[in-house]
Fold:
Amino acid sequence: MTESTSGYQSSSRISHSSSNTPERHSKPLVRPQHPMGIGIDFGTTNSATALFDGEKVHLVKLEQHSIVMPSATYIDKNFGIVTGQEAINSYIEGNTGRTVELSAEVLGEGRTTTGQIGDGGLPEEGSTEKVYGQSFVDGGQTGRLFRGIKRLLGGSDSQRLMVFNRPFRLVALITPLLVRIKKSIDQQSKSIAGATTKHACIGHPVNFEGQKENKNNAALSMLAEAYGYADFKEKTYFAEPIAAALSYLHDNPGEKKDKLLAVDFGGGTLDLCILQHRDGDYEVIATHGVGLGGDHIDQLLFKELLFPLLGKGERWKRSGEDREIETLFPFEQYEDLILNWAVSYMLNQNQYTTPVLKRMESGDEGAVKYRRLYDLIKNNYSYLVFQTLKDLKATLSYQTEARLDIPELDIEFTVTRAHFEELIGSAVLDFESAITQVLKNANLQPDEIDLVIRTGGSSLIPIIKQSLNQSFPAKVVEHDPFTSVAAGLAIADYYGLGSDESEKITQG
Ligand SMILES: Nc1ncnc2c1ncn2[C@@H]1O[C@H](COP(=O)(O)OP(=O)(O)OP(=O)(O)O)[C@@H](O)[C@H]1O
Ligand SMILES: [Mg+2]
Structure:
């Protein structure tokens, strides 16, 4: 979990007047700014978009069969770009199951793909030498997939990610997603009278992930630039958990409870805010945001469930100068690359594969595990394995046990929900500390909160629900886990509640 603050300052008053009753509309607390509000939630894992016509929220269909689109960009060898589900499909079709062959490559100036690897699974800093000593390219690679780019925005803004030897700025990887979103908005807003589509309210976490000073403003600047390229000329900004609360209030116009806590637990961040009822409006009295999300949970699962099956903890023997040496296999040298699927192919270097092959030769029980590790590395199965773990996690939200089945690695066993909860215990504790912190920021005790609005994909995890139910008995409601933020942003855009570029967000 990264550090946290109460970063959100602007737009601290949100109107509760957006009900669709004529009486309320005749006296809006905030004057509409656009005939149609546009809200775009560019999430770590998923993106969603909504339109608001003053009465109804319309979710924009971003995929053929879905309003939610994976936040994924795929660039092929010819620099052809596809986005969303198609990006993921292209990556899986082209890159999984083939044997990876790396070759040394002369580097151009500057950064390479092989820098330090961030939690998001993508390279962060351009210190190739420091980490790997040499740059390698995967000659057979048919394309590169980027997912979780949002998690890198709080890093260095001069970042470049190499795609087939060509450097790409983060902005360039986000822009195609936004261009696609803009197209869908243009197509689907035609029925709304007076609708214009060159404006949008852009969501942001309370705190972006990353260590950089002033990271929130740096991240928003990059987002703003990308939105500009996608032809959104007028942009405002609004914090994601406040948008989720606004969407709830719109759906529940009679809500009069005094103090509301919104909890948005997504793929990359946990975002919290507390609102207080005042004179018919709600005022934001505290926010808090930390770098904790579904991605972290997936990595915990990988470490705990699969590392032991891939050889962690096994010993190996090899000949030393005058005798045989037996030590623990240096599994830790593989861990970061295994956990960061976007760069797992870097394991296809002799320095990594030779010890694995050697250990496989011993033919004992442990050798089977190294066979799996070898297959994982050679066939580039990392992304597929993460996807299987995500599915397992989601199934355990609805069932008390689920099968983890990875035939490619000859792994199949049952995981109970109880075991899953044990494995993610540290994340649950971090979640609970963040709740404690937002209450502290507002100077409130848990029993002073009157309603908890629970949203975001990771808030579907039963132990997370239980934790909230225990702290706030009979006060927790679930609100549109994957679309609440986009809906709230559209309402915020309609009423002009977002802050403009000059205000942005402050970092506490
Ligand atoms: N049924 C489920 N049970 C548990 N986790 C789930 C479930 N469905 C989705 N998730 C997880 O929720 C996360 C995605 O949630 P969401 O779409 O709210 O995030 P996001 O908006 O993309 O991320 P962020 O808001 O952090 O930028 C993923 O980590 C996904 O694995
Ligand atoms: Mg989100």
Remarks:
- Residues 422 and 428 are 10 Å apart (CA to CA).
- The chain has three domains: 13-68+174-291+450-495, 70-173, 297-390.
- Residues 70-173 form one domain.
